[in-house]
Amino acid sequence: MTTVLVADDQPLQRFGFRMLLESQDDMTVVGEAANGTEATRMTAELHPDVVLMDVRMPGLDGIEATRRIVASGGRTRVLILTTFDLDEYAYSGLRAGASGFLVKDAQPEELLSGIRAVATGDAVVAPSLTRRLLDAYVHHLPAATQPGASSGAPDPRLSTLTDRETEIVRVMGQGWTNTEIAERLHLAESTVKTHVGRILAKTGSRDRVQAVILAYETKLVG
Fold first, then answer.
1. Rounded distance, CA 84 to CA 221, Å?
2. Beta-carbon neighbour count of residue 130 at 10 Å?
3. pTM > 0.90
4. What CA–CA distances, in Å, run from 180 to 9, 74, 108, 171, 175?
5. How far is the C-alpha of 87 from the C-alpha of 89, rounded, in Å?
6. d(CA 195, CA 161)
């Protein structure tokens, strides 16, 4: 059973999410939060598998709440929800440690599969959304987060990667799925998964989303 905390300042939105999630045999909503402060407190108390996190809420917003939840070191994963315009807050949410990003007009099946994937440790951002999101906001990255941008020196987070792993990080940043990587680089999909796992471990990336952001920050993609 996947336990979910719904964080949204709109009561009707929370009601709709609860009705959808509790229609599933493998999900249960353990609580509802109307702002980031409540979401942070209830996560610490209830230890849900997934927090379905709205971005714009009164008081403590979803970005800071995500940052605090991730920093606590618990097992809870955060799935960010935002509006269709892919505003900069969504990018900030991923940088804060969220494991996924979905727009609010996603199909119910997309939301349900996204929650299930995040609960099992995967990252959830459709490749097309990854590309659109990061393309739109990579120019907001401060120079300090791009160590190699001015000096030309290789980023230390990439220094332990093999040539093949570096290549895979690059195409991950371009939005390729594991299946596409396997087909285009003539590798077994199991081999790709092994490479991705090693990349995450070597770079200290929490999940695939963080590795994609790393590819942009270090100019592997741009």
1. 24
2. 23
3. no
4. 38, 33, 25, 9, 9
5. 5
6. 10
Q: Which pair of structure tokens corresponds to residue 178? A: 């594991």
pLDDT in tens, 62-72: 999 999 999 99
Tokens at residue 25, please? 């045999």
- Which tokens in the block code for residue 121? 């440790």
> Quick one: which H or E segment has residue 202?
helix 189-203
Question: What letter represents residue 69's amino acid?
Answer: I
Region of residue 104 (phi > 0: left; psi between -120 and 50: alpha; otherwise: beta): alpha
Q: Which residues pair with 51 in a beta bridge?
A: 5, 78
Convert the pLDDT of each residue in 148-163 to its tens digit.
444 455 678 888 999 9
Place of tokens 């941008």: 149
